[in-house]
From TrEMBL:
PANTHER family: FOUR HELIX BUNDLE PROTEIN. It comes from Candidatus Scalindua rubra. InterPro entries: 23S_rRNA-intervening_sequence (IPR012657), 23S_rRNA_IVS_sf (IPR036583). Pfam families: 23S_rRNA_IVP. It comes from the Bacteria. Gene3D superfamilies: 23S rRNA-intervening sequence. This is Four helix bundle protein. CDD domains: 23S_rRNA_IVP_like. SUPFAM superfamilies: IVS-encoded protein-like (SSF158446).
Length: 124
């Protein structure tokens, strides 16, 4: 499949699905977490997709790679927030394991995308 926009990228699709799941589960969190953990999780989730999109819009591989690294950092932040959520009993163990696995799958695809961008940068 030809990549025409960032929406065609598998890594963006995975991050988008993760973001949607985070929004869904955080609606069930206690009200006193609204401006704490919920806000942090949602910001990290938004950052993960937004940085992929912004990097795609850059015309230099190195800039795109840097935005992807920012996105990857946000994905790792999400994993930490999921651990906190599980520790506090906001997520069932099953939901926690599922979302954590999705996060790491997204990170793995991100690492592959970054490696591909590096190869293209090095060959140009």
């Amino acid at each position: 499949m030809e990549i025409k926009t960032f929406e065609d990228l598998d890594v963006w699709k995975l991050a988008r699905e993760l973001r949607r799941n985070i929004y869904k589960v955080t609606k069930t969190y206690p009200k006193d977490e609204t401006y704490r953990l919920v806000d942090q999780m949602r910001r990290a989730a938004i950052s993960s997709t937004a940085n992929i999109a912004e990097g795609f819009g850059r015309f230099h591989y190195q800039e795109n790679i840097q935005f992807c690294r920012q996105s990857r950092g946000s994905l790792y932040e999400i994993v930490d927030h999921l651990i906190t959520s599980n520790d506090e009993g906001y997520l069932t163990d099953e939901k926690y394991q599922s979302m954590k696995a999705h996060s790491y799958r997204t990170i793995k695809v991100m690492n592959g995308y970054i490696a591909m961008l590096k190869k293209k940068k090095d060959s140009s």
